[in-house]
From TrEMBL:
Domain Phospholipase A2-like intervals: 2-57
Entry GO MF terms: phospholipase A2 activity; structural molecule activity
Protein name: Phospholipase A2-like domain-containing protein
One GO process term, biological-process aspect: arachidonate secretion
The species this protein was found in: Harpegnathos saltator
InterPro entries per UniProt: Phospholipase_A2-like, PLipase_A2_dom_sf
Length: 61
């Protein structure tokens, strides 16, 4: 895993499906936004969709 130390969802390789199945919660509002971003990435491989998710993350972070 290459995520930011202490966070559940910020960074690549966070094992999203496993964390969601366990019911892991983000540790703060930034981690919650990172979770939303990870979910958006998992739902689409479309570059435009991923850019939109990146923009949302940038605004909310």
């Amino acid at each position: 895993e290459l995520y930011i130390s202490g966070y559940q969802f910020c960074g690549p390789g966070t094992h999203l499906a496993k964390r969601l199945a366990r019911g892991d919660q983000g540790i703060n509002s930034l981690d919650a936004v990172c979770c939303e971003h990870d979910i958006a990435y998992s739902r689409s491989n479309n570059l435009a969709d991923r850019h939109a998710a990146d923009e949302i993350l940038a605004v909310k972070a």
